[in-house]
Records
---
Amino acid sequence: MKRGLLLIDRGSREQEAKDELDYICKKVQQKGNYEFANYCFLEVVPPFIEEGIQNCLKTKVDSLTIVPYFLYPGKKVKIAVTEAAKLQSKTSVKFTVTKPMSMHHTMVDIVNSKIESALQKNNITSSRNMVDVLVIGHGSKDPNAQISIKYVVDNLATSYRNVDYCFLEIEEPNILQGIQKCNKNNPEVLVIVFYFLHEGAHVKRDIYGDLNPALEQSTLKKTIITEHIGTDDKMIDFIIERAREVENAN
């Protein structure tokens, strides 16, 4: 059976985000033994979902595994799945749709590895019970988004002195409120985690617009920032794991 895989990403105009998706698809195709692996976007820039699926069907696969490449099981995921399902009736190729990249121990492992890497890079040798962590997510109107980021935070809590979260936009606590709360805890070291999949506009510019002024107002002793989720090998394995969950069930 020839099987293909399609990631549905939110969408970004930044070339770095597209480069990361190209890399991820290449690795997923190799490790997952797919006929091909490709990506499309829900919004912002093409290829959009219909074009992405049509491109997949040109390869004459027998089945297509669709992965909503989102960190939160919210409204965006529902829209992506609905758009993909509309096209199922137009082809004999069987579609299977995975869960998004949330509520799973792998995301905890990835965030923890980003924290460890940032500490090492900055030559921080403090005991982990002296380190505080602030996870910055995007924000969503869907309550499941907050549940998803809290899952990561709660599972990290046993490894560090304090672990909390805030959001770039849409919901609170916002970045200023998050930094103010961390400031009250007076940590020896604060590690700030960018909980974003790509090096898009949010990671490159938008977060700093709120984060830098908040840090300037604080009295925090030492702050370091992790890399975003990016092209971590654990994420590539996680995509394949999510795909296998639905492929083996059918």
Note: Residues 3-101+231-247 form a domain with the Rossmann fold fold (CATH 3.40.50.1400).
---
Amino acid sequence: MSGNPKITAIKGMNDILPPESARWEWLESVVRRVMAAHAYRNLRTPIMEHTQLFTRGLGEVTDVVEKEMYSFQDRQDQHGNAEHLSLRPENTAGVVRAVAEHNLLYDGGKRLYYMGPMFRRERPQRGRYRQFHQIGAEALGFAGAEVDAELILLAVSLWRELGIQNWRLELNSLGQPEERREHRAALIAYFEAHADQLDEDARRRLHANPLRILDTKNPAMQALVEGAPKLMDYLGDASKAHFAAVQAILDANGVAWRVNPRLVRGLDYYNLTVFEFITDSLGAQGTICGGGRYDYLIEQIGGKAAPAVGWALGVERVLELLKEEGVTSPEPAPDAYAIIPDASALPRVMQALHALRAQGVAVQMHAGTGEGMGSMKSQFKRADGSGAAFALVFGPDELAAGEVTVKALRDGAGAQTRQPLANVAAWAGTLKSTA
């Protein structure tokens, strides 16, 4: 026995093993279908970016930048220079960087989506890990409230396709920068007048990012925050009209919503519409999807000014919610299982299986243990356990006739036919799963 200690995964960074990985693949396939129906196209960005992208884009006085990013200084080049790099804690900034860098908006707006891992060094808990996964949708180059509503309706379509029912939608408007500046001054004055009630986080944020104080989870500060000046009272006519237009479209589509004046989101780049989809089934980690409009982010990271809006959902949280709601994904299974009584037949059998797979038939081949292929009884038992609809029996009689016996294992169990190996295409379609 080796004396070397076992190496395990990093805390909060999890292996996704079969059959759980099949649930991920199913979720991703549903997402691709819904995105295609809304004409959103896939974009893939690096998992590592320059740290400056996040400090400039997300805001330096945010929990993500201050406490949670995995950042480091790269090795020095031949000139003694070293770049400051970070694993991406979210992907909107990366999408915007890619859009600006490659001038994707030169011929008009773009609707994009992404899937992939993000990284934050926070305390692992249910549905929230240090390597976690997000799916996001971003519409860039569109200023109208109808695109805010389109993205919300896209998420609603996704919940419907997944079978998720326990959710609610909360909305708010953060207005425009000048409106927030006026509100900010009123917030600072209010909290300064109640400085003795502020906790350490609130005191630290008071002059740097007072809007984030409204999102505090400290029970001792809830009454104070409830009495704070409301941003909605500082919105101008254009901001109010934009927000009302979003609500009217949601109403027309039968989507229930409520305004939450304390909904500010955790990142600095938002303006106008912000929203969250929340469930009561996951305890404290109730937000499963959130986003909003971020019209100034592209210019903020050095691109040409353009409006944008988007959202991101947490894959782990959505999968947890699916479990809570009893939604099951299709169990992956091969269409057929190849039973091989004699190992000497393997070259011919594998030729036939290769031809079947080329016709789109998923076939699992029985594999020996080094001491032969095993009994027919044990092979049929494995065939049944695989979930396959058919067993393909490559016995000596069948092979001598240039045929294979196709035996039903599910519908019409026991029924069997002989099929010619010389013309797989003529009968392969009868094996294909209809799931």
Note: The radius of gyration is 28 Å.
---
Amino acid sequence: MRRLIFIALITAGHVTSAQISSTEKIDLGFSQIEPKREKKQSSFLQAVKVPTMLIGLGVYSCASNDVVNRYEIREERNEHLPNFKYSADNYLMHAPIAIVYGLNLAGVKGKNDFKNRSLLLLKSEAIMAALTFSFKEMTNVSRPDGSDGFSFPSGHTAQAFATATFMAKEYGDESHWYSIGAYGIATTVGAMRILNNRHWISDVFAGAGIGILSTNLAYLTHRYKWKNKNSNLTLVPAYTSGPALYVSYRLN
């Protein structure tokens, strides 16, 4: 059961990072399908279908045990790894961000320039945070350890999959191994949230969906206006007591 769950998360992430081939005009003799409109519709569906399925699975698993029994998963954890308690997930969820900027510093160019990339990261983080905390407030699901009522969805998993999708978007075209590595890290974070007894499997599914959806929407709606190398806007990701983004604007 656990293997199937982790494989499903990796597969979902990998499918999401795949690029859509361009739509060609189809001449039927009496009408033409507009390629731009079809491409927009296909891009939107590609951006939302996998994360929506994951969120739906999370919601359903939270309300019913027909598909995935979250209590059985917790029982297996308590039986085999009752003393599992590690904090690596607090740092791994940000690892793809460090990798992306590290690769860029090393001279490996990604999909976007520094400013557009940073703005896309900021947008995805904002969307992810808004969705995650809205769900937490609305659902009020108790954690497996009973510490509070903010279990659903998993914020750590949402963060991990948002940054994994960010890395896949920026470097997935260079090599599929970047995407596989990014989603492998994210899946590890989701697994650790369960093993640390901080989240149910339903929380992890929903968190993964929210993370992927947030970054997909950020890229889908981005207009790439920040291409001027002499722009006064500066965006620099940072980490102090938590993830942060340094923003500055130079007045002429």
Note: The longest strand covers residues 233-239.
